[in-house]
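Now for a specimen:

…
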Amino acid sequence: MFLDAIVRLYQYQRESNARVLDTVDEISVTELTAVVVEGQPSIKDTLVHLFSVTQMDVAWWRNRLSGEDAFRIEHLNQDYADANSLRNLWLETDSEIASFINSLNSSDDLERQYTRVTPDGETRTRVLWEMMLHVINHGTQHRSEVAVMLTKLGHSPGDMEIL
């Protein structure tokens, strides 16, 4: 049952990111890179951050990279000049997520533990389900920020709820 909930949350993330990216297609590159809300990064910077962090985590979970190496992944904002390049980053990330989720066979798989050493030398161990929920929560936060910016620009992505 818990695995089913995780799968549904990641489907929701896919649908929500698609809706946000469809709305981003409606704005200019100038609007994409502008500071829309004082004290917040641009829409582009927020999405690059969101997709990069998600990619870091899934690379670690899939054992493609160690925890330490995964957290060194850095996508440079200047490498993503427009909505299309952001969509490509998301599609690449989402493909990895889908492959990983398809590899999970039961809720027991969500109990896997992952250990990494942080840049300050602290060793941290986390349970997979906790990290997967964190990624969803992190995404909800940043999609909400982007939705506010898009709405201020006159391009609301509409209802972003799961139900």
In short: The first helix runs from residue 2 to 24. The domain at 2-152 is CATH 1.20.120.450 (Four Helix Bundle (Hemerythrin (Met), subunit A)). The mean pLDDT is 94.
